[in-house]
Design brief:
The protein is α+β, with helices and mostly antiparallel strands. The chain has helices spanning 3-8, 13-30, 39-69, 72-75, 81-89, 93-106, 121-128, 134-145, 153-166, 172-186, 195-201, 222-235, 251-269, 287-292, 307-316, 342-352, 391-396, 429-432; strands spanning 109-110, 116-117, 203-208, 214-219, 281-286, 297-299, 304-305, 319-324, 367-371, 386-390, 403-407, 410-414. A hairpin with a 5-residue loop joins strand 3 (203-208) and strand 4.
């Protein structure tokens, strides 16, 4: 070994073996390994590779912990561990800080009793098994970090375990929503900014640019945002297929065109035309919230709004206030017609809050009413046999092997075995924490 190599150091023998094994695998991949796999084996390969990828941060956490225990950043004249990681690994400040944050929470730390335990043991164990990704772990850690110190330690541990278990079914965005709802349960008066603070922070700027376009920047109050989204959402849905050709506009372009329509109406008529039910602001709350104005109501897009502001909106705008049962279910309203009535549609919106298919975030304005037991097979047009499903999932869920069932008045979706061999029923995050 040369003197220069000695200064640089050498990785461990076991890491060298891992690097050799990775190179062997990549050689097989470039040689056509995947071409010889059937569809099921290809999906199994994808999952196994992801599991390995998710386990690697465990080593990363312990490496960072060792760096800090040895005070290596100071020895190398680096301004902290983040600066060392940025320089040595060419990381952005954001990524370096994220890795350090994860290491402090998930690597074993010395407790007051002298034990070596991570601060988030359930999450750390799940990551070591490859059940959660680094991104999911970060979402869970952030959600727990936002809990106030007044939350009981046992309740905090239960929240960690619930979020960790949910991570095996939910994507990061849905996991974040679940974390927010857990915070509401544990700290109902400290989650959101007060109405007065929302009013103080409101702002909107329409800034002319040198090329003739405009840049919009601002922050809307919950009430203003709810009304604007309620108007824009149904008008920014993709246009139906024309001769088999889909709408060429992306989501941002469609929303822009809807806003342009709103501005055009306001300029030409000085008032907005009355919209139908799908374009109205729909807010759900419990009977207790309606009585004592506590907690947080929810719009059809899942945004939180105080009951007092929701009731104020009801005096000023076209707003539907819908009261739910304890578990979020709505009583059936039987009809002989195949098509759901307006009242039934509002009840479905209150319960499902959009497409009920797992992980789908399409709002109610983009959905269709689906008979769980089909009309042709004798299924009734009752709320307890209907659910909201977006056009894409309405067309594709059956060919993809999914099934929809109702349990206790709520829609559940059973995935095909290629997604979950145990076929555990799933719910959309908007429904599962009502």
């Amino acid at each position: 070994m040369t003197a220069e190599a000695s200064k640089l150091g050498q990785p461990s023998a076991v890491l060298a073996q891992l690097a050799f094994a990775v190179q062997q695998y990549l050689d097989e991949v470039t040689g056509g390994l995947y071409d010889g796999l059937n569809d099921a084996d290809l999906l199994a390969e994808l999952r196994s590779l992801e599991t390995l990828r998710r386990r690697l941060p465990v080593a990363d956490h312990r490496l960072i912990t060792q760096l800090e225990r040895r005070d290596l950043p100071a020895q190398l004249a680096a301004v902290g561990t983040a600066a060392l990681l940025q320089a040595a690994l060419r990381l952005s400040p954001y990524e370096a800080k994220n890795r350090i944050y994860a290491a402090h929470l998930l690597a074993p730390q010395t407790t007051s009793a002298g034990e070596q335990l991570p601060l988030l043991p359930s999450l750390a164990a799940a990551q070591e098994e490859g059940l959660v990704s680094a991104e999911q772990a970060r979402v869970i850690a952030r959600a727990l970090d936002l809990l106030p110190e007044s939350v009981d330690p046992e309740a905090r541990r239960a929240a960690e375990q619930e979020l960790t278990e949910a991570a095996t079914l939910l994507r990061p965005r849905e996991l974040g929503i679940l974390g927010q709802r857990l915070r509401i349960e544990l700290d109902p008066y400290g989650v959101l900014t007060s109405d007065a603070e929302h009013r103080r922070l409101r702002t909107l700027a329409v800034i002319p640019r040198h090329d003739g376009s405009y840049l919009i920047h601002g922050r809307l109050t919950p009430g203003c945002g709810a009304q604007l989204v309620a108007w824009l959402s149904p008008r920014s849905a993709p246009h139906p297929l024309v001769d088999g050709v889909p709408d060429p506009r992306n989501a941002g372009q469609r929303t822009h065109d809807a806003l342009e329509q709103l501005a055009s109406l306001a300029v030409r008529r000085t008032e907005l035309v009355e919209s139908g039910a799908p374009a109205q602001v729909i807010i759900t709350m419990t009977a207790d919230q309606l009585t004592d104005r506590t907690g947080w109501a929810e719009t059809s897009l899942g945004q939180l709004i105080s009951p007092s502001e929701a009731l104020q909106l009801a005096d000023e705008s076209i707003v539907n206030l819908l009261v739910q049962q304890a578990n979020g279910a709505v009583l059936a309203q039987g009809r002989t017609s195949r098509l759901a009535s307006r009242r039934q549609t509002l009840a479905l919106i209150a319960r499902d809050k959009g497409c009920s298919f797992p992980d789908c975030d399409r709002p109610p304005e983009w959905t269709q009413r689906h008979h769980v037991i089909s009309w042709a097979d004798g299924g009734k047009t009752d709320v307890d046999n209907l659910t909201l499903v977006c056009g894409r999932h309405h067309r594709e869920f059956e060919p993809a092997g999914w099934q929809c069932v109702m349990a206790e008045g709520l829609p559940w979706w059973i995935p095909p075995k290629w997604i979950d061999p145990q076929q555990r029923p799933r719910q959309n995050i908007r429904i599962m924490r009502q």
